Every structure is written in structure tokens, then in C-alpha cells.
């Protein structure tokens, strides 16, 4: 295993954005709507989208909207769930990988920033993994939690509670930013810079 030092002072523009979101659509049409709006806004700025490669739920909505708006969409899906999550056949590139760990590592390696939309347990897993990898200095890329209509309020309250009770530090709350509008997401991305691409993934 290589131990490559984190380089923090090499600003690089964000080119590829990873979107984590539900493989379901949720109970309201508003979730699909916002997924499409985010994807379209990213595509209009010529940002490439990296996601889980499925054609279901919000994941499918993000991919379809981004493709329709003319940007590249890269999917990464494990062999054993490509039927369950209905692998998307119209992507710019679909990587079918051996397992979930490979998928997650490749999603991070191929992305300069992360957006978390509403989702379920899988989205939570991905959220905590990307947050904790940042805490461990395995990457230093922007993480944006999209808090649509307070969807993630309970998660944010839990993180507050963890800090208040001394199981994390206030600096852990700086690992991520919260946006409540599509414009807010774009603004954070525009203000963000990422360390040199590829430098930070050697320890994953
Ligand atoms: P969900 O939010 O549960 O609809 O899942 C969203 C995505 O997270 C899907 O593509 C899942 O395959 C993926 N995912 C990542 N890690 C996990 C995990 N530990 N358990 C279930 N799904 C996961």
C-alpha cells in the first residue's frame, strides 16, 4: 500500500462531479424534479457526472437529464447489482466492476466533488464513507449535502449531537457544505478548488 502525502495547495477546477442519490424515487415527484434540475445545471456548465450506473430512481433521473443536456455521464456498477439497479445502457461510459468497494473507490477517484441528494441507506453509506475518507485525509474534495426541503435535517442534527457530545469536533462539520437550492450547489462548486487530481486516492 502506498502512502502518498496529501497536497492541499494545488487548486484544480472541478471537472467531474459525483452524484450520490436514491435508487428509489421517493414519495414525491419533487425529488425526481430536483435530481433533473441538478443534473441539467451541472451539464450546462460542462461538468461530467459520475454516478452508480443504474437506471432506476433518482439515479436514473440524474443520468437521463444530464445526457439530455449534453454532458458526459460515467456510471460505475458492480456486476452483482447491475440487474437490480438496471444498468444504464445509454451512458458515455459504463464500468461494470467486480464489487461494491471497487465501485466506491472508482467513483471517488474519477470525481473532483460530491453532491448528496435525497436517498436511502445506500446513499447514507456513501455519504459517511466520503465524509470519513475526507476526515482521514484520503481526499480533500468538496462535499455538498443538498438539503431539499429539510430532507437531511435529521442527519445534520445527528452530526450536531455527535459534536456536542464530544464524539467529533466542530472541524468535522467543515468537512461538508450544505445547499438548499440548485444555485446554491453551483455557487459552492464554483468557489471550490480540488487538490491535484489522482494525488489523494493512493491510500484507499
Ligand atoms: P439507496 O440510497 O439505498 O437507494 O442506494 C443508492 C445507491 O447506493 C445504490 O446504487 C446502492 O447500490 C448504493 N450503495 C452503496 N453502498 C451501499 C450499501 N452499503 N448498501 C446498499 N446500497 C449501497
Provide a short characterization of the protein structure.
It contains six helices and seven strands; from the N terminus they run E-H-E-H-E-E-H-E-H-E-H-E-H.
Helix and strand arrangement:
Elements (H helix, E strand, L loop, with lengths): L15 E5 L8 H16 L3 E4 L5 H12 L4 E6 L14 E5 L2 H10 L3 E4 L4 H15 L7 E4 L6 H12 L12 E3 L2 H10 L13
Parallel strand pairs: 1-2, 1-5, 2-3, 3-4, 5-6, 6-7
Bound molecules: adenosine monophosphate.
Task: Describe the protein in words.
The chain has 204 residues and is α/β, with parallel strands linked by helices. The protein has one domain: 3-Layer(aba) Sandwich (Rossmann fold). It contains 6 helices and 7 strands. The chain has a 7-stranded parallel sheet, sandwiched between helices. It is globular, with a radius of gyration of 16 Å. The model is unreliable at 1-11 (pLDDT under 50). Bound molecules: adenosine monophosphate (AMP). Adenosine monophosphate binds at residues 22-24, 52, 54, 81, 85, 100, 119-123, 125-126.
Amino acid at each position: 500500500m502506498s502512502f502518498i502525502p496529501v497536497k492541499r495547495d494545488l487548486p484544480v477546477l472541478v471537472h467531474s462531479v459525483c452524484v450520490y442519490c436514491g435508487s428509489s424515487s421517493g414519495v414525491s415527484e419533487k425529488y425526481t424534479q430536483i435530481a433533473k434540475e441538478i443534473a441539467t445545471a451541472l451539464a450546462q456548465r460542462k461538468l461530467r457526472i459520475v454516478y452508480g450506473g443504474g437506471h432506476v430512481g433518482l439515479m436514473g433521473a440524474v443520468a437521463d437529464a444530464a445526457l439530455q443536456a449534453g454532458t458526459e455521464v460515467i456510471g460505475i456498477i458492480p456486476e452483482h447489482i447491475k440487474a437490480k439497479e438496471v444498468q444504464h445502457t445509454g451512458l458515455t461510459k459504463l464500468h461494470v466492476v467486480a464489487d461494491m468497494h471497487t465501485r466506491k473507490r472508482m467513483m471517488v477517484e474519477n470525481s473532483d466533488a460530491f453532491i448528496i441528494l435525497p436517498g436511502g441507506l445506500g446513499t447514507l453509506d456513501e455519504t459517511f464513507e466520503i465524509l470519513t475518507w475526507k476526515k482521514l485525509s484520503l481526499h480533500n474534495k468538496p462535499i455538498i449535502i443538498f438539503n431539499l426541503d429539510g430532507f437531511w435535517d435529521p442527519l445534520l442534527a445527528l452530526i450536531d449531537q455527535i459534536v456536542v457530545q464530544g464524539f467529533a469536533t466542530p472541524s468535522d462539520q467543515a468537512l461538508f457544505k450544505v445547499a438548499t437550492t440548485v444555485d446554491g450547489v453551483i455557487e459552492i462548486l464554483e468557489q471550490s478548488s480540488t487538490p491535484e487530481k489522482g494525488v489523494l486516492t493512493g491510500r484507499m
